[in-house]
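Table 4 source record.
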Amino acid sequence: MKKKLLAMLFSGAIAFGVFAVPGNVVNAEETCACHPVTVYGAEANIEIAKVLSSDAFKTAKADLFVKGYSWNGVANVEVVKWEDYFFKVGVKVPFVNSNGNVEYATFVDGKLAGVYPSM
């Protein structure tokens, strides 16, 4: 009788430990806002229009033409937003260099940040 009672008590304690005592809680990884988010639609069109009509773009375009770059229009322009950098907006305008490789003139908040090769 004692063995049955002890067996029931220990099995009850084990069951309580398995189901009632919290173990390590698995936390889902928080979304990282460190990666740029691609912007589409009307918001992207507004940002593209701002950059293409700016003096910074016209100056950069003229400088790149002198260096042998060509521009194929707005078809492949990309707009990205960095949420962790105070919602900075970047507009990547593709230019083709003299070797035929695509490089992006990147404008952040309307100012030329540089010309970078495509990734």
